[in-house]
Design brief:
The protein is mainly alpha-helical and 135 residues long. It has one domain. 43% of the residues lie in helices and 7% in strands. It has three helices and three strands. The longest helix is centred in the N-terminal third of the chain and has 23 residues.
């Protein structure tokens, strides 16, 4: 039987959140290069600005999905099980919410720099959910 779903605040989120930002930087950097922005310093400045703005949004903001709706708050969580269309929500297991001291905007400039400094911490392995052993 699968582990029951539990929303937890855990310091493990810090590594997950920072790695997620590194993935965002790598993805944005590749798109900028594909679209003709060759100067690494310019790309780094754009990536840092993007990460900081989106980080601040995740940390402190809300939005309305439509003009007449109530505000909703972005909540980026991580799980160790893929939430597929046929995954019962109650069997998701631990869902990691931001730890109490984590703030995306505080990590933004440092994580944006990692890629351009060639730091191995900026390299985050990814894969398709269908490639997982129990998929």
């Amino acid at each position: 039987m699968a582990d029951p779903t539990r929303l937890v605040r855990d310091d493990a989120y810090e590594d997950m959140g920072a790695s997620y930002q590194c993935l965002q930087v790598a993805t944005l950097d590749a798109a900028l290069q594909e679209n003709g922005i060759a100067d690494a310093a310019v790309r780094q400045k754009i990536c840092a600005s993007f990460l900081f703005t989106m980080g601040n949004f995740h940390d402190q903001c809300w939005f309305k999905p439509s003009a007449d709706s109530d505000p909703v708050y972005p909540l980026l969580c991580f799980s160790k099980k893929f939430l597929n269309t046929d995954t019962p929500i109650e069997e998701l297991g631990q869902v990691y919410a931001p730890s109490q001291m984590f703030a995306f905007h505080e990590y933004a400039h440092g994580n944006a720099s990692l890629l351009y400094e060639g730091d191995p911490a900026a390299e985050v392995e990814t894969g398709l959910c269908s490639d997982e052993p129990d998929a």
